[in-house]
Specification:
alpha+beta, Nuclear Transport Factor 2, Chain: A, 2 domains, six-stranded mixed β-sheet, 6 helices, NTF2-like_dom_sf
Amino acid sequence: MSSSYNRFDESYTAAVRRSLATFHENLSKGRLQDNGPLFTKDVQWNFDGSLLISRQSAITTLQAVVNGIFDDAEASDLYLIVDGGVGAVLFELRGTPSVPQTGPFAGLDVVPGAPLNVRSAELMVYNEEALVEQINTIDPLALLQSQLTGASEAPPYDSTFTRPANSQTSSAYRDMLRRRMVALHENVNSGQASRNAEMADEGVEVVSTGRVSEKGRDAFVQLVSSHNAGQGAFLNKVFHDGYTLADGHLGAIDYVWQAAQESAYMGIAADQSKSVRMRGMLFLEFNEEGLIVKATDVSDESVIGTQLNLTGPFLYP
């Protein structure tokens, strides 16, 4: 899928990049209302499956979520990727529930003082004036819930991290990256997932949603296939890629996989008449030869149970 406004001149790209970087800077400074001017009046925001329409609705909801539980919410961008009129962000979301907070929040029995640290993803589509007209946000809600309720411990914040330098590359190189990214899920869908090993460096680093880090081509092949998603109950996944972005030596794939339930999942009996969809984003670092040296996936497995139990909405634009 290409951008609705496919423009590559330097001034436009710079404006999109500034907007993309400003969004989480405002969140970290507690100035969520300052994000309003970044959006079109009728912006559409798929916020973890809930569809928000209009600038005011987007800001009001974000303020309720962030300010409703955190005094110190911060978002640190790990990757900023811009391709034409589309931007993708991999970011680390951190915060500590307010000490006075008692009782449930968003249905969770929150443990005051239990730190949160998860990696999330956002895709923003811009119009010709470099205003955001569509946003897709993916938070790993299952992991977030586990940390907020004290069931699992948040990893420590690495204050020494710096975003990788991403020097610009030729259009021919970026076209090569796009072709290789498109081929990844095409190989999975055609039953040739093992061919994806050829596109990765031998020592490729692989990071899953749960922050588990592995190395090697076998781990990379499994990550691209979402092999572990669904705990073996959804083996025949079919992938549909949305936006595929290339920027310098970085790439991002916005994808959805769909599969029927073939075996029991979290106590829910197998029912092949039921099929689920899960959205994710895959972020990639490439070397000069165009081989993938690092792959990071962000997805939210909690949507599987939501769809099987029909307990809530899960929307795709």
